[in-house]
Amino acid sequence: xxxxxxxxxxxxxxxxxxxxxxxxxxxxxxxxxxxxxxxxxxxxxxxxxxxxxxxxxxxxxxxxxxxxxxxxxxxxxxxxxxxxxxxxxxxxxxxxxxxxxxxxxxxx
Length: 108
Description:
Blueprint: H1 10-20, H2 25-31, H3 36-43, H4 51-61, H5 65-83, H6 88-106
């Protein structure tokens, strides 16, 4: 499996994976059965990938799907915090809520 560079945006990560294998946008887009302009927009963080696209990227570049999904979801959280002019405290509270919600869901 290919190691991924963490803590960049998902789009930057995708571009890095593509460049590591020396392929063009067009080549990768064709192999993922998507429009080249969509792939370019994802790389520029102008569009968000679907779970299907994340899965296809994982298979194509031989990277762990869970790691890719984590990078994508962390982008979503980071952008939302920036948009709301929040800080790291939001993440601490969210972590506690996740723990709480897991206990509720495990009880069902």
